[in-house]
Design goal:
single chain; four-stranded mixed beta sheet; 4 strands
């Protein structure tokens, strides 16, 4: 599983990254967490607001910071 955090590296992006890492740890799954700061790659996902959460190339959230529990639900499908 590849989980991407799309954003410029702002505080909200950092909070989302921390929440994702905690959710992955709590679930005990093998997932690669990648921070994407390239404007071109962010634009390739057709999002208008950051931070965004992408799981296996599917945009799950944009412009919000989901809680650890919300992220766990998104990961589990």
């Amino acid at each position: 599983m590849i989980i991407k955090i799309l954003g410029s590296g702002c505080k909200n992006c950092q909070r989302l990254a921390a929440n994702v890492k905690e959710a992955v740890s709590e679930l005990g799954i093998d997932a690669q967490v990648v921070k994407v700061e390239s404007i071109q790659e962010i634009m390739n996902h057709n999002i208008m607001r950051t931070p965004a959460l992408v799981i296996d190339e599917v945009v799950k959230t944009a412009g919000v910071i989901p809680s650890v529990d919300e992220i766990k639900k998104l990961i589990q499908g």
